[in-house]
Specification:
The protein has about 270 residues and is α/β, with parallel strands linked by helices. The chain has helices at about 35-50, 75-80, 85-100, 120-125, 155-160, 165-170, 180-185, 195-210, 210-225, 230-240, 250-260, and strands at about 10-20, 20-25, 60-65, 70, 110, 115, 130, 135-140, 175, 190.
């Protein structure tokens, strides 16, 4: 692992398959990559570190270990017979992890390689957009267990698929397919069998080749579009835009265009 990356982590694997791109793998295949307390600590600590220092990373791809499961959700074996206090203490950790993921300034692509159930789907929804394999399956099953989504599902899913579709998905707890995810706007691309990571990493490299200040400001501005009225959102966009005017990257981008060459952005 490159020295510039946080970690190592017990439940996560970090790789840099190309310059400026981080491949983050949820790595508990013996438990379906389920979210346990340690993974909560690891996700929280990783994304808190990346909020403080992006370490020249320009895009993150999030996937699961193996070919069948992205993340099975919360580890119910660990949760079996938990006291109310222990459950709420653990969930507070998961809340910190989810907030840290959603606050990550680096663009994130979810590469869903299999089942993404409950908290697994909520992790995918923390990403900026999702690619999925043909065998991907999705569900928010919490109501079948006597609880409800608590990692952003009731907020992020309606923003992806619309309020009425989100209510059907969450109230029934019924799994749905990769094809459904595409039709409903949850997934951006249904990849050919065996090409999920190849496609996700290719898109990550495109993003990483663009000006990093620009892509991070774009991410913030688009996220604000769901929280503000049009005029306030546009005002936020202009503030974000003005951040780039005095940068070296703006000068390099225009210069490279006129010189008919690929721009070499430095994030400055």
């Amino acid at each position: 692992m490159p020295a510039t990356l946080p970690g190592p982590f017990e439940t996560l694997s970090l790789e840099t398959p190309s310059e400026h791109v981080l491949l983050l793998t949820l790595d508990r295949p013996e438990r379906g990559n389920a979210l346990n307390t340690q993974m909560g600590f690891d996700l929280r600590d990783l994304f808190t570190a990346l909020y403080h220092d992006q370490r020249d990373l320009r895009c993150i791809v999030v996937t699961g270990r193996g070919e069948k499961i992205f993340c099975a959700g919360g580890d119910l074996k660990e949760r079996n017979n938990m006291t109310d206090e222990a459950w709420q203490t653990q969930h507070a950790l998961f809340e910190q992890a989810v907030r840290a993921m959603m606050d990550c300034p680096i663009p994130m692509i979810g590469a869903v390689n299999g089942a993404a159930f409950a908290g697994g789907l909520e992790i995918a929804l923390c990403c900026d957009f999702v690619y999925c394999a043909p065998n991907a399956r999705f569900a928010l099953t919490e109501v079948t267990l006597g609880i409800m989504p608590g990692a952003g599902g009731t907020q992020n899913l309606p923003r992806a698929v619309g309020v009425r579709r989100a209510k059907e998905i969450i109230l029934t707890g019924t799994p749905f397919s990769a094809s459904d995810a595409m039709d409903w706007g949850l997934a951006n691309k249904l990849c050919e069998d065996g090409k999920l990571l190849e496609d996700a990493l290719a898109t990550a490299e495109k993003i990483a080749g663009n000006a990093p200040i620009s892509t991070r400001q774009v991410k913030k501005a688009i996220d604000m579009s769901t929280q503000l009225d049009l005029k306030s959102g546009y005002a936020f966009e202009i503030e974000a835009y003005n951040r780039m005017v005095p940068t070296e990257d703006r000068l390099e981008g225009v210069r490279a265009f006129n010189e008919k060459r690929k721009a070499q952005f430095k994030g400055k």
